[in-house]
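Continuing the batch. This is chain 6 of the set; chains 1 through 5 are on the previous pages. Same settings as before, nothing changed between runs. Recording input and output for traceability.
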Amino acid sequence: MTEAVATKDTAQHGLTAHSDGDWDNRVPVQTRSDRPKSTDVADFPQVTGREAVWKFTPVAKLDALLNGALDGARLPVSVSEAAGVSSEWIARDDARVGRAGIPEERGAAAAWGAFDEAHLVTVASEERRTVVVARDALGTAPRAGHTIIEAAPHSTGLVILENSGAAQLSENVEIVVGDGAKLTVVSVQQWDDEAIHLASHYASVGRDASLTHIVVSLGGGLVRLNPSIHLDHEGANGEALGAYFADAGQHLEHQVYLDHDAPHTRSRVTYKGALQGEGAHTVWIGDVLIRNNATGTDSYEQNRNLVLSEGTRADSIPNLEIETGDIAGAGHASATGRFDDEHIFYLQSRGISEEEARKLVVRGFLLEVIAQIGDEATEERLQAAVEAELAESVR
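Output for chain 6:
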């Protein structure tokens, strides 16, 4: 296995390392693509909070998930019925485990080593099907989970992961999209206020296939969900969308990675968040890699944050790594700010109160993402949840 402290070998012929710890030959990882990968937690060092991948996270709250024993038994889940969609539990040594990706950090590796069985959801219908996978009643004991979502070639489907109730969960979610398939995966976090959720999502998108990955984080004391989408076949398309609303004392973190590793691939990343209340903290890190062989790539990522009150913090870091000049386009953007005064004034001039005008702005800001889910019942429920957040205080 790779040594946990990731380094690059910079030795050159004729050069001799100094005797002061050999630091000349140990260069820290600078880019997402160079991170070490392993399913063995022992290959990753103890987390201190000073590491680039953890520096924004309140790691003291994660000790049980990073260093303790995790219950890897089946999670209590319910799966809605849909024609052409199957659900089963498979052994951890099944060949279908590990196809989409493997951990890049300690939390995911700890969960990978602890789960007993993986929950496999397979979409095989060419007609669009919707299936809801609900997870609740997980309790407060530290748990590990592993979910695999597979779309067969030329299938079309929407899979919604609904998370609610109490939890202290660390999990890996694999998404395998077959050639020509069109899959939307939605992960909704509406946990209880004290819940802790670590999740790493890995996706592999086939030739001329399309994946829309949507994250909606509204509940939970600490939620850290990191999707990695690998466009490793020609013509693959990946969209990563997210909406989040952080209240007082809540930490919501998303680290998004789009890896273009084939010609004529396309990606779009849009994450939008709102923050209100003392100590509300959001983190968004977006990494896009366009590899040397990914000619004709078209990529753009953006993050927007709307600050609703004092005492909040939004960290937003877009990164773009390009290894070839033969691309269709690439760009990134990030913005964090308060209400647009002119927008509020315009609404007030139309007879709308200032409080209601602010609510309308926030509602439209977040629902732009929620409306992309494609399931009316889920969209209406999440719209109501946003309304409830706004009803508490927007001032």
